[in-house]
Specification:
By secondary structure, the protein is of the alpha/beta class. About 55% of the residues lie in helices and about 10% in strands. It has 13 helices and five strands. Strand 3, helix 10 and strand 4 form a beta-alpha-beta unit. Helix 8 packs across helix 9 and helix 10 runs parallel beside helix 12. It is elongated.
């Protein structure tokens, strides 16, 4: 048995994974039979696993996903929603995040856009990427308020550092002039270096008209659409199907 003083020293050194492994009764008999180098390797691996788990917890908490239980493993492939297994498998690998590409997820209300965006957000956190979920109208309102209290530049810098920004309910209501400007600033900080996932009831082809300013619309869409992955969901509302309509 390891004495309490040694365990406390491990915790002081923030080696909580090792401390947990050494006090786990399920491992003690098995590990005791191994050579020292193998025991040490297992302890180091346990510490790495512990830290990875804690990092995932922090990332998921900071992400504030609307559907925290959504994950790619639970996708319902039975419904004909226009989802491609190959596309989802590609996105699950995370290269789009590493290269700062965007995902544009469109479809009618209730077809599962928010759920899928949260599932992709959770997968991103699993891969070690920082994620933040926000409804687009609320985030634009937050940025508008930030102009008034002097925190706009700081908030914009915080958002620019995120590996993945999820903008849900994009183009759900008319956009004001100041919101167009803030949206351009927000996206300009991310283009080519950070990924953005956008969900919208409007098809991508209608976004230019929705933005209602040809010059700014060209600039905004150039930062969103170029090189993006486009998923257009279709079919009946998943909420109706879940309720056994």
């Amino acid at each position: 048995m390891l004495n309490e003083h040694t365990l406390q020293q491990l915790r002081t050194l923030r080696l909580d994974g090792m401390a947990a492994a050494l006090t786990d009764p399920a491992n003690q008999i098995h590990v005791a039979e191994l050579p020292f180098d193998q025991r040490l390797a297992l302890l180091v691996q346990r510490e790495l696993d512990w830290r990875d788990g804690k990092r995932q917890e922090r990332l998921l908490k900071a992400a504030r996903l609307k559907v925290s239980t959504a994950c790619l493993e639970d996708i319902d492939w039975r419904s004909n929603r226009g989802l491609s297994r190959d596309t989802i498998q590609t996105l699950a690998g995370g290269d789009w995040l590493r290269h700062g590409h965007n995902v544009l997820l469109t479809g009618a209300t209730g077809c599962g856009k928010t759920w899928l965006s949260c599932a992709l957000g959770q997968q991103a956190a699993r891969l070690g990427f920082s994620v933040y979920y926000a409804r687009a109208p609320r985030l634009l309102e937050e940025l508008h308020v930030a102009h008034g209290d002097g925190s706009f530049t700081r908030r914009l810098a915080q958002l620019a550092k995120l590996d993945l920004l999820i903008l849900d309910d994009f183009a759900i209501a008319p956009i004001a002039a100041h919101e167009r400007n803030d949206l351009l600033e927000l996206l300009d900080d991310r283009v080519g270096s950070r990924a953005t996932l956008i969900t919208s009831q409007l098809p991508v082809t209608a976004w230019h008209t929705w933005l209602d300013d040809p010059t700014l619309a060209d600039a905004i869409l150039d930062r969103i659409v170029h090189g993006s992955h486009k998923l257009a969901l279709k079919g009946e509302s998943m909420r109706k199907l879940a309720n056994g309509r």
